[in-house]
Design brief:
The protein is globular. It is mainly α. The chain has one domain. Helix 1 packs across helix 3. The chain has four helices and two strands. The two termini are 14 Å apart.
């Protein structure tokens, strides 16, 4: 079951440690310093009910790659040092993104 909300605190003194997930990260881990695209993969995977590494390993231009890129631009790139996103707001945004792209909304989001 997806989370009701997502939150994080950015540590501006620490550079992002990695671009891609390495298999140990989850939304329960301390994600200080994780890059925006990896955090987006975790959040989107939680909403879609898939493994975050599946999103992380997509080639440029694929649907999941474009979804993650748009999510980073729409939410994470402007986020304050401490932020919170309601899970249903994320789900609504993802549904809207699929519709805008002319794609079928994944079953878990209908």
């Amino acid at each position: 079951m997806p989370r009701e909300f997502y939150s994080a605190t950015r540590n501006r003194d620490k550079e992002p440690q990695r671009e891609f997930l390495k298999g140990t990260e989850s939304l329960d881990d301390n994600l200080t310093g994780i890059c925006s695209s990896a955090l987006a993969s975790l959040i989107l995977a939680d909403r879609l009910g898939i493994d975050a590494q599946l999103i992380d390993r997509q080639s440029e231009g694929s649907v999941l790659w474009r979804l993650r890129t748009a999510f980073v631009a729409s939410f994470l790139s402007w986020a304050e040092d401490t932020w919170r996103l309601e899970g249903e707001a994320v789900a609504e945004w993802v549904r809207g993104w699929y519709v805008e792209q002319g794609l079928e909304v994944p079953a878990g989001l209908r």
